[in-house]
Design a protein that fits this description.
Layout (H helix, E strand, L loop, with lengths): L1 E5 L5 H10 L3 E5 L10 E4 L4 H10 L3 H9 L4 E4 L1 H6 E4 L10 E6 L9 E6 L8 E6 L3 E5 L4 E6 L2 E7 L2 E4 L10 H14 L1
Parallel strand pairs: 1-2, 1-3, 3-4, 4-12, 5-6
Antiparallel strand pairs: 6-9, 7-8, 10-11, 11-12
Bound molecules: glutamine (GLN).
The site of glutamine has 11 residues, from helix 4.
Length: 191
């Protein structure tokens, strides 16, 4: 199994560290030809506007969109979730536009920009540390979308077919549970 990590901007290094720890081969994705080599892709946190722009400049936006539509497993964390959304609340921007969710950027206000929370994710037994940094949340979901987690009434984890999206940063903790959850999706897809 080989996992790609979109590496145009943001926290891609930290995701690689987690995959290294799990003994999973990964590569940094910077050009479209690399998409042929991988079994799944992680879209890291960072700044979605910058990332979206760079995806266009690097000619990655359309090829990646096609790959995801054709079933390649994708894991969007924070900005990555924003990239996946079909709709942003009060904002006409759409990046990949593949996941049937409406996402509110910087959904917790500036004061509450960063916080930690011990929370539950559906399908995961123990509570895990959720790290939020100027995080988005999911305001509404389409019929096919499964809600995997909420914090104080706000949706923070969703799954739709081959797509997993969360508003927090599992790569900034020691916990590998969510990455393993995604790798499981990739494994199943390969079979
Ligand atoms: N606020 C950022 C954005 O809009 C997301 C923050 C993050 O990825 N930690 O893209």
């Amino acid at each position: 199994m080989k996992i790609g990590i979109l590496a145009l901007q943001g926290a891609f290094l930290e995701h690689k560290k987690i995959l290294d720890k799990l003994g999973v081969t990964s590569i940094y994705i910077k050009e479209k030809s690399q998409l042929e080599e991988i079994d799944g892709i992680i879209l890291p946190g960072g700044e979605s506007t910058a990332m979206g722009k760079l995806m266009k400049e690097f000619d990655l936006l359309e090829p990646l969109k096609e790959k995801i539509k054709n079933g390649m497993p994708v894991f969007g964390t924070c900005s990555g979730l924003i990239l996946l959304a079909k709709k942003l609340v009060n904002d006409d921007t759409v990046h990949l536009g593949v996941m049937d969710i409406a996402v509110k950027r910087n959904g917790y206000g500036r004061q509450l920009g960063s916080f930690k929370y011990l929370g539950s994710i559906k399908g995961i037994e123990k509570k895990i540390e959720l790290v939020f940094i100027r995080a988005p949340y999911v305001e509404t979901v389409g019929e096919e979308v499964e809600i995997l987690g909420e914090v104080e009434g706000k949706i923070i984890a969703v799954k739709e077919k081959n797509m997993l999206g969360i508003s927090f940063h599992p790569e900034l903790t020691e916990d590998t549970t969510l990455h393993r959850y995604f790798l499981n999706m990739v494994e199943k897809n390969k079979k």
